[in-house]
Amino acid sequence: MELYDVPAGSRPHDVAPAPDGSVWYTAQSKGALGILDPATGKIRHIPLGKNSAPHGVIAGPAGAAWITDGGLNAIVKYDPATEAITVYPLPANAGHGNLNTPAFGGDGKLWFTGQAGIYGSVDPATGQVAVYRSPGGRGPYGIASTPGGTVYYASLAGSYLGRINAADGSVEVLSPPTPNQGARRVWSDSKGVLWISEWKAGQLARYDPQSQQWREWKLPGKKPRAYAVYVDDQDIVWLSDFGANALVRFDPATEKFTSFPHTKSRAAVRQLLGRPGELWGAESGRDRLVVLRTD
Questions:
Q1: β-strand 278-283 against 269-275: which pairing, if any?
Q2: How would you class 275 by CB atoms within 10 Å of its CB: exposed for 0-12, middle for 13-18, buried for 19 or more?
Q3: Rounded to whole angstroms, how far apart are CA atoms 80 and 42?
Q4: Separation of alpha carbons 17 and 230, rounded Å
Q5: What is the Cα–Cα distance from 186 to 170, expressed in whole angstroms?
Q6: pLDDT digits (tens, 9 = 90+) for 117-131
Q7: For position 61, what pLDDT does the model report?
Q8: CB atoms within 10 A of CB 8
Q9: β pairing state of 213-218 and 203-208
Q10: What is d(CA 233, CA 171) in angstroms, rounded to the nearest whole number?
């Protein structure tokens, strides 16, 4: 486990390895996109605008960073080549979305969630923003795309997995076996199987779209709280457990959990992402980025 300090008070929320080898993170309390050079430890902050409070960040087409910004109530694009920032505000009638997380679908659009009870899309080609009301109201949180391009989101307040029909923006509600489990984040493996972190239940869930079958596993420990989930290039599942203050590895082949405790209490890793051989997270409670070498 390797650690990188970020500027005090940054409260880094989400993190994304960038195509050029750097690492992006959302400095939520600073209203900025952070850029870490892992080789030197050097960090830059790119201000995103007045009232900015960025949440999610991912790499998109042409190496750009795409950010969900709850403070701006907008999607923000950062182009590393030109350092240009483009803001895509939500429509006025959408209200405050409490924007959360983005993912690119097979239709080429950026899809996003808002905990206030919305999900939506941005078409990078036209800049058009569409917003939809989520089934059950409040809750859309994590979001991910399968290798086939289908987008799913997890509803924390609604305790369901939503499958988006990109053609018309409708959603199919898929309910895990455990009621009120607090589905928080979701990720796809290489076969298009979905893995979901169940915050309230302290469980990891698996949904296979082909068989339509669910499975769930309780995380180890007395009071697990599964927050982030990510599936690496070897189809190993990783989670952050607030209850154990640890990162957790789950091997689907053996159905065994392995825990990697944080070096300080209340690390609060809210999201995980990676690239081959590396798992990255942001310790929002400690103003640090953490990386595990997975080779």
A1: antiparallel
A2: middle
A3: 16
A4: 13
A5: 19
A6: 999 999 999 999 999
A7: 86
A8: 9
A9: antiparallel
A10: 28
